[in-house]
Amino acid sequence: MIPFFEHSFNSVVWRFEIDGMTDRVLLETRNAGEKKVSFSSISLKTGEIYFKEIESAERWLTGIETAWDGVLLLHQYRGPNSPNHKGIIAIDQTSGKVLWENYSLSFDHLSVNGPIVFDPRFQPQKLQLLDIQTGSIIRKYERAIDQEYQLQLFLPDPVQIEKLTGLNLKETAIENSVDYLEHNKWRIVSLHAINNGVLKQSLYLINGFSIVFEDLLNIGIQKLQPESFLVYKHQLIYLKNHSQLKVLNL
Question: What residues in the chain have per-residue pLDDT under 50?
Answer without folding.
Answer: none
